[in-house]
Every structure is written in structure tokens, then in C-alpha cells.
Amino acid sequence: NFPSSVKIVEVGPRDGLQNEKQPIAVADKVALVNALSNAGLKFIEAGSFVNPKWVPQMAGSEEVFAGIARKAGVSYAALTPNMVGFERAIAAGADEVAIFAAASEAFSQKNINCSIEESIERFAPILTAARAQNIPVRGYVSCIAGCPYEGDIAPSKVAEVSDILFQAGCYEISLGDTIGTGTPANIERVIELTNKKVPLEKLALHAHDTYGQAIANIYRAFQMGVSVFDSSVAGLGGCPYAKGASGNVATEDVIYLLNGLGIAHGVDLQAVITAGKNICASLGRVSQSKVARALSSE
Ligand code: HMG
Ligand code: MG
């Protein structure tokens, strides 16, 4: 009894690259975004308008947005932590923005330098401005299963923060298993409780694959009726403020799963594999996608 189709939110150009220490040329980032849109991905997080001192790799997000070949029907998104970031995102031409809160106080402090409550206050003017300009706002809740500083996080806290962001006007709440410690049992509990506040069709799962649980967690969420999944080409990614966090679940692996289940997604697997190969070559990295490795003829 799965949802009949799935929305994939490709976060590779943002979550996938934000943690890279080596400089990445704007041209490589632009080529990645274009390859992903050409592969059929309709939601692409192309950058992040955060403080460049905090996340230097995302400093060039204006240039990335200026350089991409915009494809009709594709939404190019960006993270915006505050009004400075929102203004930058709008000036750069972002189609939608994402605000990001956490279910962990300690993570909120480390990641965005304020408490959960203060972060909600900071997001309020973004939601107001976005509404006035018809810009959809997505809301992330990080640390839905575990926090690198606090350990286990109560599912009720995830539900509480999700409720606040949804009530405040986010069109979708992306539940972030930031350090990938979740397993189907506690992800189920988080979704169950959060769904008491936010409709299932407004929930997304943003799974990092640090403990190899991402596909299992996605499958469980999908069984429960969640139909939006965040993923990153080649399984790139991690958060600079979550030590040890590895990449997001690989887009290739999610697509393979969906193909096996016969679920529509509109994405060309081979084209994503090629996009992943190219960015991995630029980064000098091995793809973290098992599917990409299995299907690559080398
Ligand atoms: P702060 O230093 O407390 O900010 O940072 P501030 O308001 O005190 O400003 C300090 C200076 O930064 C000022 O400049 C501001 O203008 C400037 P100065 O007067 O010193 O010259 N500034 C900015 N410049 C450009 N763009 C901006 C901006 N904001 C302030 N937007 C802040 C607070 C939130 C900005 C900072 O902590 C920050 O940028 N944090 C972002 C951290 C981040 O990007 N983390 C990774 C993304 S979250 C993630 O990966 C999780 C997710 O994937 C889901 C999951 O996996 O769970 C989404
Ligand atoms: Mg993430």
C-alpha cells in the first residue's frame, strides 16, 4: 500500500558539497546542478546562503545560481538561516528556500548559533517575506533520531518543532536524520508522533547513511505513507556541525529501490550515475552509491 509516486529532493549540490574542505570550482557545481536537472530531478538544492565564514564551501552560491541553465518545471532551492540569507537567495533567483531548525538544543547552538526558540523567531520574518513574494518555504528539523552532542532525541521533540514550523507556514517538513543513527523502529515512532501534527503528505525524510540504515528507514517511511525523500547524488554529504556524519542516502540507491517497487519517480538512473561519476572525479572521491558502483563498468 505504498504511495503511487515519489518526490525526490536532490540535495547533492548543497548538503553533498557543503562539507568538502577542498575548493570546488563554480563551473563544477554548475555542471552538477545541470546534470541533475537533465536527469529528471525536479527539486534541486543548489546552494546555501549561510554565513560564508561558517561554511566557506557555500560562499559561491550566488555564482552557482547565476551560472545554471534553468530548466522549466525544476525548482532550484537554497538554505536560508536568516533574513540576510533570504535576501541573498531571492537576489540570486532561488525558486524556493529552506529554513532549518533542530530537535536538539545543543545542535541548534552549534549549527546556527542560537536556541531552538530563537531560531523560530529568526525564521518568522523569512516566512512573512516569502509569503509576500510567493516563495515556498521548506522546513528542516535536524537530529530527529540522534544528536552528535546530546545523544538520543525524544520523538515528541521532533513532533513539537515540526508542528511549529508547519504552523508557521512551511509547505513541507523534512525530517533530518543528521547523523544517520535512526533505525526503522525509531524512525517509525518519529513519523507516527509527527503525523499527529503534520499530514503525512507534508512530511519528507532526509536520511544520512552513516550507519547504513538509510534505505531501510526510507522503506519504512514509504510503507507508512511518506512520499518525499531527500537524497544526494553519489551519497555525498555531511554537516560541518555534526562530526562523523557521512553522506546522505545516495540518489542512485533510492531510485533503484523505487524501480524495484515499480514506483514512478521520473528520474533517469543512468544519467544520475553519470552526474555522480563526474562530480566524484572532480572531488577525487569514490562514489558512496552501491548502485552506481555496481552499474559502473570499470
Ligand atoms: P552568526 O555569526 O551568529 O550571525 O551566525 P550574526 O547574525 O551574528 O552575523 C555575524 C556576521 O555574519 C555578520 O557580518 C553578518 O552580516 C554575517 P559582520 O557584521 O560580522 O561582517 N551574516 C551573513 N552573511 C551572509 N549570509 C548570511 C549571513 N548571516 C549573517 N546568511 C548563522 C548565525 C545562522 C548565520 C550562522 O550560524 C550560519 O551561517 N550557520 C549555518 C550553518 C550551516 O550552514 N550548517 C549546515 C546546513 S544545516 C544541515 O546540513 C542539516 C540539514 O542537511 C538537515 C539534516 O541533515 O539534519 C539541513
Ligand atoms: Mg543533511
Automatic annotation (TrEMBL):
PROSITE patterns: HMG_COA_LYASE (PS01062), PYR_CT (PS50991). One of its GO terms (molecular function) is lyase activity. It catalyses: (3S)-3-hydroxy-3-methylglutaryl-CoA = acetoacetate + acetyl-CoA. Its EC number is 4.1.3.4. Keywords: Lyase, Metal-binding. Coiled coil: none annotated. Residues 6-273 form the Pyruvate carboxyltransferase domain. It comes from the Bacteria. Pathway: Metabolic intermediate metabolism; (S)-3-hydroxy-3-methylglutaryl-CoA degradation; acetoacetate from (S)-3-hydroxy-3-methylglutaryl-CoA: step 1/1. Belongs to the HMG-CoA lyase family. PANTHER family: HYDROXYMETHYLGLUTARYL-COA LYASE (PTHR42738:SF7). This is hydroxymethylglutaryl-CoA lyase. It comes from Simiduia curdlanivorans. The lineage of its organism: Bacteria, Pseudomonadati, Pseudomonadota, Gammaproteobacteria, Cellvibrionales.
